[in-house]
Design a protein that fits this description.
There is one protein chain. With 429 residues, the protein is α/β, with parallel strands linked by helices. The chain has helices spanning 2-7, 31-45, 47-50, 61-73, 89-94, 144-148, 156-168, 194-202, 228-236, 253-259, 265-278, 297-310, 337-360; strands at residues 21-26, 55-60, 79-81, 101-103, 126-130, 132-133, 152-153, 173-177, 215-218, 243-245, 283-290, 314-319, 366-376, 379-383, 395-398, 411-419, 424-428. Strand 16 and strand 17 (424-428) form a beta hairpin. Helix 8 packs parallel to helix 9 (228-236). The longest helix has 24 residues, at 337-360. The chain starts with a helix and ends with a strand. Bound molecules: iron/sulfur cluster (SF4). Iron/sulfur cluster (SF4) is lined by residues 135, 137, 139, 142, 144-145, 179-180, 222.
Length: 429
């Protein structure tokens, strides 16, 4: 959307006070996200009275999920565009061919991002690279397939071509994303696979021959579709981060079945053992849901033991978020909020101990870091290959007086001098 707005000769401003039109791109995956989106819309709506804003546009998952119902409740919004109408953002802000109301075409009928679509990066050194849009899985707690449509993979030549442009523009980290990344290409004719795609990306000639050139990171794998070829590819290329993000949500067979996920604890044990055996130094990240309908104390203890045994490097935990339009809503045995919160706290405290112990092992080691931003005088923040943007901790780099400051957006070697629960600290060498 940013790319399209810029191409139409609009200037992007940071302060809503200065804006002629304001776009709120919303999330409504869980209740908290929907609430946050609504608060932001109402907060920004006041610039129509106090600023120069003439049009307020709401885009994305909130109008896609709540449709005309939300439009009726927010008269201050001039136009709502769903996830399948992002390419009509300019019409929505200009009020030209589409003056107002809701634009909600079926998301499954729209093409995913295309290479030639105009693009504006929000950071110069790191870019998300979308390889597919939508999801064809049927998790009972998840609204995404309805909001984003069924999975449509981008042709690999299109992804590669966009990657080349991004690398030529100086991007140092390509983060491959989709709702279900590891099933990339299975819907294409002829079929393609994530391992083939990542192999081609890792083999692209890179500009910076002094360092690793650029890193490739893959997020949002699925335990059912991650295959041996992908694990092998990650092990074979030094410029692919040995980072496996595989949201499992739970391990109790009864809960997984209710969630609509077709694996069990044994298959997960085998998968994580295999990754650790075949990819030296592999970093594992997963995401869990606690308080899912029907989750008993026994189910939760099974999950807790699994987390203790597997020792994930990074763990994200969500409280189950209920809504009447989810299939899981109709399941019996909804867990009281305070019980779900206790379970969340117990898991978080278990992971805190694991992460603290885990990070101590890096003290004294030399690690590559992608330098991202200055924090204060002589202190910079960056990330190692095992720290993903936005969700994991950071590595803080001290650069003493008289030392050259590490360049933002470049790779630097650091010697780790200290470790906190989720962050590392080191000196540039
Ligand atoms: S795989 Fe992920 S995006 Fe797809 S339905 Fe399940 S939770 Fe939702």
């Amino acid at each position: 959307m940013l790319g399209r707005i810029k191409r139409a000769n609009w200037t992007i401003v940071e302060d809503p006070e200065d804006a002629d039109a304001i776009v709120v791109n919303t999330c409504s995956f869980i209740e908290d996200a929907a609430d946050e989106s609504i608060e932001m819309i109402l907060e920004l709506a006041r610039y129509k009275q106090t600023g120069k804003c003439k049009r307020l546009v709401v885009a994305g998952c909130l109008p896609e999920r709540y449709r005309e119902q939300i439009a009726g409740q927010m008269p201050e919004v001039d136009a709502f565009i769903g996830t399948g109408a992002f390419d009509r953002i300019v019409e929505a802000i200009e009020g030209s061919t589409f003056s107002g109301g809701c634009l909600l075409p079926d998301p499954s009928t729209t093409s995913p991002q295309e290479k030639n679509a105009p693009r504006t990066l929000s950071a110069s050194h790191m870019a998300y690279l979308k390889v597919a849009e939508g999801c064809s899985q049927k998790c009972t707690y998840c609204i995404i397939p309805r909001l984003r449509g069924k999975k449509r993979s981008r042709p690999s030549h299109d992804v590669i071509s966009e990657a080349q442009d991004l690398l030529a523009a100086g991007v140092k980290e390509l983060v491959l994303v989709a709702q279900d990344t590891t099933s990339y290409g299975k819907d294409l004719k002829p079929k393609a696979s994530l391992s083939q795609l990542v192999e081609k990306l890792a083999s692209l000639p890179l500009k910076d021959t002094a360092g690793p050139g650029a890193w490739i990171r893959v997020l949002y794998g699925h335990p059912e579709s991650i295959d041996d070829a992908f694990i092998k590819t990650v092990a074979s290329y030094p410029n692919i981060c040995s980072y496996f993000d595989i949201p499992i949500q739970h391990v109790s067979s009864a809960i997984l079945k209710k969630m609509g996920r077709n694996y069990n604890r044994r298959t997960l044990d085998r998968l994580f053992d295999k990754i650790r055996a075949e990819v030296p130094g592999a970093s594992l990240r997963t995401t869990l849901i606690v308080g899912f309908p029907g989750e008993s104390e026994k189910d939760f203890n099974t999950l807790l033991r699994f987390v203790e045994n597997t020792q994930f490097d990074h763990l994200g935990i969500f409280l189950y978020s209920d809504s009447e339009d989810l299939r899981s809503h109709r399941l019996p045995g909804h867990v009281p909020a305070e019980v779900a919160q206790e379970r969340y706290d117990q898991l978080m405290s278990c992971q805190l101990d694991i992460s603290t112990r885990n990070y101590q092992q890096y003290v004294g080691q030399t690690l590559p870091v992608l330098v991202e931003e200055p924090v204060e005088k002589h202190l910079y923040a960056g990330r190692t290959p095992f720290q993903a943007p936005e969700v994991d901790g950071m590595t803080y780099i001290k650069s003493g007086p008289g030392q050259p400051a590490p360049a933002i957006g470049s790779f630097s070697q650091i010697k780790v001098s200290d470790a906190m629960e989720y962050d590392l600290i080191g000196d540039a060498i």
